[in-house]
Design a protein that fits this description.
Layout (H helix, E strand, L loop, with lengths): L1 H34 L2 H14 L4 H13 L3 H14 L4 H13 L3 H14 L4 H13 L3 H14 L4 H13 L3 H14 L4 H13 L3 H14 L4 H13 L3 H14 L4 H13 L5 H11 L12 H4 L9 H4 L45 H12 L33 E4 L16 H8 L6 E4 L7 H17 L4 H13 L3 H14 L4 H21 L29 H13 L4 H13 L3 H14 L4 H13 L3 H13 L4 H10 L1
Antiparallel strand pairs: 1-2
């Protein structure tokens, strides 16, 4: 009886420990969201989901983390799951609506906000965000009604004042817009963008002195605001202070070298002062943004001076900060505020012939130009700001977009810092490790081992002795061939692997290793011939991305593919064979073939992060952006952080 009680006590203790452990991972995950460690948060919620897949909260919070990484489709998928488990979950509807808003699916966003309001009718954030979605669908009156409701619930809701001011500008109620911006500034006197917006509105009323004061105040509060310098330059240019305008454009371009309209405006100011360099400025502006490739003498600059505050374009909608609430205040505010992005436009330019009447744009042309300016996108242009990322938003890093490299047989010392890089287990490795008594331990990885060359040479010496004692065992030659390849002695490796095949032609790992060795030899030949040594999928889906110059592969990979085929014929359930085979097919521009192989690899290994990553890139190249985004989201969820950068650059 005592023994039975003791066993029950142990079981009860284990259950309690397990429950406490899950709570710990949830708490750490939520804390990581609060401090901006979104990738770390996802890792925590993955653990909770693995052991408690019936809980809605880990899906919701993992969606929040993905949302902050701008993986909106991945976030929607997690919100879907949270709502499936818990249909009455207002925060999940709220955040899913925000994610739909950010991928421009406005109808679904409004539907989610409607449902969130049913469940939580007193949340001002939901009305505010639904207003943004309604503006996106040109329902200005509906948007204003939602902002009114948000302000009734929360009379000090700055974002709704700003959003309503934008809606009023779209109705040409400039004074009403200024009144709302005044109220926003009273509530938040240090909110730089409110001054920026009010300066633009006052500029629309030709109140240049007041506009200048607002831009001055914006710069005082936010000295890094390139748009404020650009817009202040426009006011100075309007007042014919061309030198002052040029100074402001210089400062704007110092902060943001990709601001096309600042180059355009500076060129006009230089031309007025007959300063050299205006033609270069026009050329740079046109290169950065093709819409500036026009003759400045043919445009009514006075009509273009106000930047996009009346046309009902998405950039104005994004001036609002669309806040998303979360449970336990774990979600950081989702700020959609891109106030004033590309808000500066070309300023008035005097005609050399005073008697000549300048050609003016029609209202339709002017509105169309404003709309295009509002959509100006510089996210893919180089920026020094992207080099260092310290806020958890790893999607802003500068990265080289390459396929994940092939998997090879390798070995890591248990005392090495690289030992924890081992990611995958495969039954095929058991035979060779069991034969070698797990010394050395052969692993499979696509991560390079660091500072292991001496260890590998020692292992070669070890297998030299074993082969002297038994030259008829294929495992000895396979093992030594693996290590020869790891120290780049490809000739010796190929000799050993051929001997291993001669002794035992039924070992899939031998063909796999020989294919990898041949692959390295082929790549070495390619480098020597000064062709590309980095395999990239040219992402052609982004219209702003320049077409990559690719050198057609002339290396013959027939033997490599034959060895992978032999490996997979012996073991059709070996996922790394399909992965490596897909890599070669991408190199040969056989993207459909690569896709089929990656599908098979993922079918066998459900959490194959590298396969999801490479399949995502391949799908994007084949113009399946939606499918590519979902695969990259899964790769990011499984730990490949670069996936979020690609999602931001090519899928959003």
């Amino acid at each position: 009886m005592k023994k039975l009680i003791f066993i029950l006590f142990i079981l009860s203790s284990n259950l309690t420990f397990s429950q406490l452990n899950i709570s710990y991972y949830m708490e750490v995950g939520e804390t990581r969201i609060q401090i901006g460690n979104y990738v770390g948060a996802i890792e925590n919620f993955n653990i909770v989901i693995r052991f408690r897949p019936h809980l809605p909260e880990p899906y919701y919070f993992r969606g929040v983390a993905k949302h902050q990484l701008e993986d909106f489709r991945g976030a929607i998928k997690d919100y879907d799951k949270a709502i499936e488990i818990k249909p009455f979950y207002p925060d999940a509807f709220m955040n899913r609506g925000l994610a739909y808003l950010q991928i421009n699916d406005f109808a679904k966003a409004i539907a989610d906000y409607d449902r969130a309001i049913e469940l939580n009718p007193n949340d001002a954030n939901i009305y505010n965000n639904r207003g943004i979605a309604k503006i996106s669908m040109k329902d200005i009156d509906g948007a204003i009604a939602d902002y009114n409701k948000a302000l009734k619930i929360n009379p000090k809701f700055t974002n709704s004042f700003i959003n309503r001011s934008n809606a009023l500008l779209m109705k040409n109620d400039i004074k009403g817009a200024i009144k709302d911006l005044n109220q926003a500034i009273i509530i938040r006197p240090h909110y730089a963008n409110a001054y920026l917006l009010r300066g633009l509105a006052r500029f629309e009323l030709n109140d240049y002195a007041s506009a200048l004061r607002d831009f001055d105040q914006c710069i005082k509060l936010d000295p890094q605001n390139a748009n404020a310098f650009n817009n202040r330059g426009i006011v100075k240019q309007k007042l014919e202070d061309f030198k002052g305008a040029i100074n402001d454009y210089n400062l704007a371009l110092q902060l943001d070298p990709t601001m096309a309209n600042a180059y355009m405006n500076r060129g006009i100011a230089k031309e007025n002062l007959k300063i050299q360099g205006f033609e270069q400025d026009y050329a740079i502006a046109a290169k950065l943004d093709p819409k500036f490739a026009f003759n400045p003498k043919d445009v009514d600059y006075s009509a273009l001076a106000q930047a996009n505050n009346k046309s009902g374009q998405p950039a104005q909608q994004n001036q609002a900060q669309a806040q998303a609430t979360s449970q336990s205040q774990a979600q950081t505010t989702q700020n959609q505020n891109t106030t004033g992005q590309n808000t500066g436009t070309t300023a008035q330019k005097s005609d050399p012939d005073e008697n000549a009447e300048p050609k003016k744009e029609t209202k339709e042309e002017r509105d169309r130009r404003r709309y295009k300016l509002s959509l100006a996108d510089t996210r893919d242009l180089p920026s020094a700001k992207e080099e260092v990322v310290d806020d958890g938003r790893i999607q802003n890093k500068n990265i080289v977009i390459d396929l994940q490299p092939i998997f090879v047989l390798s070995s890591h010392s248990k005392n090495s810092s690289d030992y924890d890089q081992i990611q995958y287990y495969n039954f095929e490795l058991e035979a060779i490790n069991n034969y070698n008594n797990y010394d050395p331990v052969v692993t499979i990885s696509n991560k390079p081992a660091i500072d292991q060359t001496n260890n590998y040479k020692n292992y070669i010496l070890y297998f030299n002795e074993r082969i002297k004692n038994n030259s008829q065992e294929s495992m000895n030659f396979l093992s030594r061939g693996i290590f020869y390849c790891l120290i780049d002695d490809y000739t010796s490796s190929m000799n050993d692997l051929q001997k291993a095949i001669n002794l035992n032609g039924k070992n899939a790992l031998t063909y796999f290793s020989r294919a990898n060795c041949r692959m390295k030899m082929a790549d070495l030949v390619e480098v020597i011939k000064q062709t590309s040594d980095a395999i990239k999928v040219p992402l052609k889906s982004n219209p702003k991305q320049k077409n990559e110059t690719t050198t057609e592969t002339i290396t013959d990979y027939t033997d490599v593919l034959n060895d992978y085929a032999s490996c997979l014929q012996i073991n059709p359930q070996f996922p790394y064979g399909y992965f490596n085979q897909a890599f070669v097919k991408c190199k040969l521009r056989d993207y459909q073939g690569a896709l089929a192989d990656l599908n098979k690899a993922i079918e066998i290994e459900k959490d194959f992060a590298e396969a999801y990553f490479n399949r995502g890139l391949t799908k994007i190249y084949l113009d399946d952006v939606e499918g590519g985004a979902m695969d990259l989201s899964k790769a990011g969820e499984l730990g490949i952080q670069d996936a979020y950068n690609i999602i931001k650059r090519y899928c959003n």
